[in-house]
């Protein structure tokens, strides 16, 4: 296991302290507005079952909806790597906590990654992912018209292993909107990701704009089909030692891809065998455009439990 030097460790703890202070300040501000502390979502509004949108089933690090919930989301991804061949398996657990009716703590990235049989020498390894967390503010919650909007900010701490193309730090800003039409639910999320150092890690990192579209339909009380589209657009590529011409999308940190966008399509479903508090989901994802990419295809399996 790699050892972090004292300077890097000090920097990480400093950034964590800043984020913690920011979350505390935000919570205090909202409480001062008489919204009340609603930890675990006891007082958070819940829609009728047929009006409840399915939580995003793909791109788990970046696809964030506009709702404030307290929930756990377990993920397993099998990703075929396209241009460099091989595959990567990822397992992760996300935590979301409703701090107030409109403020949510989001721990959106963690977990473990395993690369297999790639064409890149040395990239046959497993290790820990970076850790990302942030705060979401749902500034519009119009339950009567099924319309919601939220903004958020987060930071990814480079605590992961560079052997699996982690160990990079990233600022994240996002905006989301959701609109329901009775049983049909639509959503869009836009992220802007800013690499703290585009030359960090073995293969660098890139600034990126990501866009995520969502549609689901409440077919029965236990089944909703889901369609999603994800787009990854590099705005400022970093340097990587192998001159790889594409980005790592959401699977890895790679400093490339300014001339190669990645757009994927997703088909999946959610099952609710025990009621609407537990969702069991599966999704198949493949690239829709012809640019060079890290994306071959991906299977994503997840479970969401809302408190």
**Main sheet overview:** 12 strands, antiparallel, barrel
CATH homologous superfamily, by name? monomeric porin ompg
What percent of residues are in strands? over 45%
Mean pLDDT: 83
Number of strands: 14
Q: Compute the number of structural domains.
A: 1
The CATH architecture classification is Beta Barrel
Contiguous uncertain segments of 5+ residues: 1-36
- The whole-angstrom Rg is 19 Å
The span between the termini is: 36 Å
Question: Helix and strand string, N-terminal first?
Answer: HEEEEEEEEEEEEEE
Helix content class: under 10%
**Pairing-aware structural class of the strands and helices?**
mainly beta
CATH topology: Porin
Q: Count of DSSP helices? A: 1
**Main sheet strand line-up:** 1-2-3-6-7-8-9-10-11-12-13-14
Quick summary of this structure?
9% of the residues lie in helices and 45% in strands.
What does this structure look like?
By secondary structure, the protein is mostly beta strands. The protein has a single domain (6-306), classed as Porin (Beta Barrel). Helices cover 9% and strands 45% of the residues. The chain contains 1 helix and 14 strands; from the N terminus they run H-E-E-E-E-E-E-E-E-E-E-E-E-E-E. It has a 12-stranded antiparallel barrel. A hairpin with a 4-residue loop joins strand 6 (131-142) and strand 7. The longest helix is centred in the N-terminal third of the chain and has 27 residues, at 6-32. The two termini are 36 Å apart. 42% of the residues are buried. Residues 1-36 have low confidence and may be disordered.
